[in-house]
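Hello forum,

I keep getting stuck at the same step: I have a sequence, I want structure tokens, and every attempt I make locally crashes halfway through. Rather than fight my setup again tonight, could one of you with a working pipeline run this one for me? It's a single chain of 223 residues.
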Amino acid sequence: MPEHDTTVLPPPARPPATETLDSLYTDRYITDMREQHNKHLILESALALFTDHGYDAVGVQALCQDSGITKPTLYHYFGSKQGVLQALVSTYTDIFLRELSEPLQYAGDLPQSLERISASLLSLTHRYPEALRLFLTVQHAPKSSESRRAAGEFFGKLRARLRELFAAAAMDHGNMRGREDAYAVSFLATLLGYIDLVLEGLIEESPDLAHRIMHQFSHGIYS
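Reply #2:
Ran it on my machine without issues. Output:
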């Protein structure tokens, strides 16, 4: 009777673990980069279209055609057109509030703080004109509209930070106490009015514009 071969064969050769992990990380990196690129295309198209035509006048099909992205892809990333707008607002709200963070800190000199805030927002207007124009446009939409509710994220947070600034300044200026909310709303309205004039080309963004904005508003406080 023949003897059985009892030799144990080695397992099939496998690639080194590092090669497998490297491949996985590379694939994931490529996927992540593709997703970020697609999202950027959609948001870039949305910013231009919403600004030029208005949020309500732009449909999902127009967004997809302009960005070269399919509807399923857009819905996968953002869920809806409103989700695209919300992503835009959140992105630029973070950028703007980060830029304004230091000027919004009261340091004992209210006119200086107001001038620095004005200068920072004017700088942001120069660097991100379409985003500021979109914010101003949707801010004037009907109160119940989804576009105005989305833009409220930026204006609400900025108004709250301004209120904190005026509350801190009221400790040095007794005549301001109890009017922090009114001052925050009034200064923001003054500032946004000038931003709108700059965007429409009705006034020049001169080096002293921030000082003029501060002076106009401060005259009402101290008079």
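The chain has two domains: 18-79, 84-222. If your local run keeps crashing, start a new thread with the error log.
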